[in-house]
Amino acid sequence: RFCEVQQAPPIEVFAVSKAFTDSTSEKKVNLSVGAYRTDEGKPWVLPVVRKVEQELAADNTLNHEYLPILGLETFATAAAKMLLGSTHPAITGGRVTAVQTLSGTGGLRVAAEFLGRVLKYNTAYHSAPTWGNHNLIFKQAGFTNIAPYRYWDGEKRGLNFDGMIEDLSNAPENSVIILHACAHNPTGVDPTQEQWKKIADVMEKKKLFPLFDSAYQGFASGDLDNDAWAVRYFAERGFEMMGTQSFSKNFGLYNERIGNLMVVVKDTACITPMRSQLTLLVRGSYSNPPCHGARIVSRVLNDPALFEEWKGCIRTMSGRIIEMRKGLRERLEKLGTPGTWDHITAQIGMFSFTGLTAAQAKHIADKYHIFLLSSGRINMCGITTGNIDHVAEAINDAVCN
Ligand code: PLP
Questions:
Q1: Which of 81, 152, 227, 249 is catalytic?
Q2: For the chain, which domains are there?
Q3: Which atom from ligand 1 is nearest to the alpha carbon of 213?
Q4: What is each CA distance from 218 to 82, 131, 246, 363, 398, in whole angstroms?
Q5: What are 344-381's pLDDT values in tens digits?
Q6: Which end of the chain has less neighbouring CB within 10 Å, N or C?
Q7: Is the reported ipTM for this assembly greater than 0.85?
Q8: Does 104 contact ligand 1 (Cβ within 6 A)?
């Protein structure tokens, strides 16, 4: 029977990263996987995280007992407050509940399972393009209709707002609309506040369900409140909605799988039955979540001094990305690389959708040992002061040839 199993297609981002690892070139650069790198091209354990880990290691009162099925409550509550703001009317009105999940991916999966199995939704829309996993998560959770809404305008290298609004207007009632809370992956282009208001108008009128995927809070602008504007706005408008949070990027806790699923309800009486259904879904899936990342994030979010220190770390990361954006644009413009490059600095967050084609990406990998996705998406954090000239020259060469 096992020999009947067919080879599944590779997941591009991991395949490209492997090509980088396998490359023996001294000049190799990895611009594919979405993880922060220092200016030395190294992973960064945030100093505040290191400090809390040392405190945890020295704390003999801690043990390895199971967490509750829905996770560490001090973590989930603080995470929801971080997303909505502690004075948000949904929070002060007790209309928010939150559960710890296996990072952002796990939060999306639990959300999709809940929406599909409990509320019988079967249609989900994601932006075109989107983070590659959205489609797979919803498919594996049993959604039978998964469709894109227009988002990226390749010509103008910006948001196709009219296309987005038209597609949302035509979506059937009770469709789940996956929205990137900020720092859209892969394009780095977010709607403006005025545009978000119009998106909310259409979704309200058409009875569409907002699911905000917040994987980069703090990474877009360096400010947690700015980056949560759209989520807070939708919650203020009175939507019943969900939001998933990842602490992979903003805490650098990628492999600890720490995330949160936040639910905003209209009627507080819904919360107890909802939590009971979420409990069943998690129990039958992974039973209960891991603790290490939850303890770290909980301590940081619940301690004002640690919280300030962490915000400083976020500013360090987002600031370095902004510097690399400026540097890359300047170099391409100086080289006279054909086309316009202002989108590199206009886009926000970890990624830039460069406009490079699959053939150009291949050229850059083959000739310069710089590895990026075939969509032309690059992780800005892979660029350092040491390799930025090499990257600019490679892009220039690919565009000129
Ligand atoms: N959503 C988006 C848009 C992402 O880019 C990512 C990570 O790349 C995630 C969710 C989830 O990541 P994780 O499961 O590591 O939290």
A1: 249
A2: 10-44+319-400 (3.90.1150.10), 73-302 (3.40.640.10)
A3: 1
A4: 10, 18, 11, 34, 33
A5: 999 999 999 999 999 999 999 999 999 999 999 999 99
A6: N
A7: yes
A8: yes
